[in-house]
Amino acid sequence: MTNRKIALIGCGGWGKNLARNLHELGALVLIVDPSPNAAELAKSLGVRCSTDLADAIDDPSIDGIAIATPAPTHFAIAERAMLAGKGVFVEKPIALSTKEGERLREISSDTGEVLMVGHLLQYHPVYLRLKELSEAGELGDIKYMASSRLSMGMIRTEENVIWSFSPHDISMVLGIAGTIPERVSAIGTLVLPQKIADNGTIHLVWKNGLRADITSSWLSPQKEQKLVVVGDKAMAVFSDTMPWEEKLTIYRNEVTYVDGRPKAVKGAADMVDVPQAEPLKMEMQHFIDCLAESKSPRTDAAEATRVLAVLQCAESSLENDNKWVKSEDFIAEE
After folding, report:
1. Where does the Gfo/Idh/MocA-like oxidoreductase N-terminal domain lie (predicted)?
2. Can you give the residue range of the structural domain that contains 215?
3. Residue 103 and residue 22 share a domain
4. Looking at the structure, do residues 16 and 91 belong to the same domain, yes or no?
5. Global pTM?
6. What pLDDT was estimated at residue 9?
7. What are 14-53's pLDDT values in tens digits?
8. Where is 98: in which H helix or E strand?
9. pLDDT tens-digit profile of 302-330?
């Protein structure tokens, strides 16, 4: 398969990781970023560096653009790149509104250009195995999910913790649920002086009774990245801070009823063996493959817009005394 040539736009804290993986995959040819650190990194990797976006957009030899700039710039750069005939990978969120997300989806459809969004955990081998087990019925009917992303640091001033941390968790939860929730509410706690939520919890409810909670904080002294999936036959825990061989555990627990009263029955706990691979490299390889084969990515604009709709519902709830918000206010029901 012929490799693709990719330009990276933005080479800050996360962009450096994209640069490393794209370089190791033999696809990186240009970094666009005005910082001296970006120029040094480009030199060390043996690729070109520029401060002008046009050097990437207007270069006919470049097949794809990877965008790792601040969220408010995502829409404009992605739009410009696709209209110029480039495939696009854009870090989360795809844009700042479902209207912008839908517009990028339309451009991708009209131009035939690849549009992929960086919901990294959709490429994590452990999450993919968990999703396979769920879809195969190993857990039974899914009744509840809880996802948490807690750490100390990476505090933002331009966006609250829900927008910063929760997109990955929303993407995972929606991936297992298979559809968007009917309604969403959110609670945020303001701790620091910048007057945006430093801790947040999103509540999601589906028409079929499924419920989920997503918790995030950048003021936690302990790091936690965990997804719990509760079925009526078994339960699963994906804990991404554990060693690889301990990241996924299936608990054969269930609830039975005795004389009409619920009783918890604990079963065996089995660790699930998953071949190890770096999720970011898997994600970048998927982008390269989509460019080469002109195929739709796993995390395409439709998937990203569903995640964005939940984020907008959560934001609306925060602004309206934590009231429930219907997802149909931001995206058409599936």
Report:
1. 5-119
2. 122-277+310-329
3. yes
4. yes
5. 0.93
6. 98
7. 999 999 999 999 999 999 999 999 999 999 999 999 999 9
8. helix 98-111
9. 999 999 999 999 999 999 999 999 999 88
Q: What is the CATH number of the domain that holds 73?
A: 3.40.50.720
64-67 β-sheet, strand order: 48-50, 28-32, 6-9, 64-67, 87-91, 115-118
Asked whether residue 332 carries a pLDDT value surpassing 70, the answer given is: no
- If asked whether residues 127 and 230 sit together in one domain, one would say yes
Q: Is the pLDDT of residue 94 over 60?
A: yes
In this structure, are 131 and 239 located in the same domain?
A: yes
pLDDT (mean) for 226-242? 97
CATH number of the CATH domain containing 163: 3.30.360.10
Domain assignment present for residue 52? The answer is yes
Task: Starting at the earlier edge strand, list the strands of the sheet with 183-189.
Answer: 269-271, 248-251, 235-239, 219-231, 142-152, 211-217, 199-205, 183-189, 325-326
Task: Report yes or no on 334 lying in a domain.
Answer: no
Same domain, 230 and 293: no
Measured in residues, the chain has a length of: 334
Closest CA to 221 of 280, 150, 272: 150
Do residues 114 and 288 touch, judged by C-beta distance below 8 A?
no
Mean per-residue pLDDT for 221-242?
A: 97
Judge residue 259's burial from the number of C-beta atoms within 10 Å of its C-beta, 0-12 exposed, 13-18 middle, 19 or more buried. exposed
Query: Quick one: which of 187, 186, 183 has its CA closest to 205?
Result: 183
Alpha-carbon distances of 3 from 44, 63, 277, rounded to whole Å:
21, 10, 21
- pLDDT of 3 reads 82
Residues 263 and 287 in one domain: no
Q: Assess whether 288 and 314 both reside in one domain.
A: no
146 sits in the region (left: phi over 0; alpha: psi -120 to 50; else beta) called beta
Helix/strand/coil for 182:
coil
Residue 133 shares a structural domain with residue 240 = yes
What's the total number of domains in the chain? 2
* DSSP assignment letter at 139: T
Sign of the dihedral defined by the CA atoms of residues 17, 23, 27, 31, in that order: positive
Other residues' Cβ atoms within 10 Å of the Cβ of residue 228: 17
How many whole angstroms separate alpha carbon 313 and alpha carbon 303? 16
